[in-house]
Amino acid sequence: MRKTLVALLICLMALAIFPAFAQEDVVEVVVTLTGDCTLGSEDRTRKDATSFDSYINTRGYGYPFSQVQSLFSHDDVTVINLEGVFYNSSGNRMEKTYNFRGPTDFARILTAGNIEAVYVGNNHIIDYGTAGFKSTIRALEEVGVPWFATTNSYCNTFIFEKEGFKVGFTGAYTATFGGARAKMEQDMQTLKDAGCDAIIAVMHGGMEYSPIRMQGQERLAAWYVRNGATVVVGHHPHVVQGMDLMEGASVIYSLGNFSFGGNAQLRATQALLAQVTLRFDREKGYLGHQVNLIPVAPSSTLEYNNFRPVILKGDEARAVMELAQHDTPFELAPYVEGVGAVQPFVPAPKAEKTE
Question: What's the CATH class of domain 27-347?
Answer without folding.
Answer: alpha beta
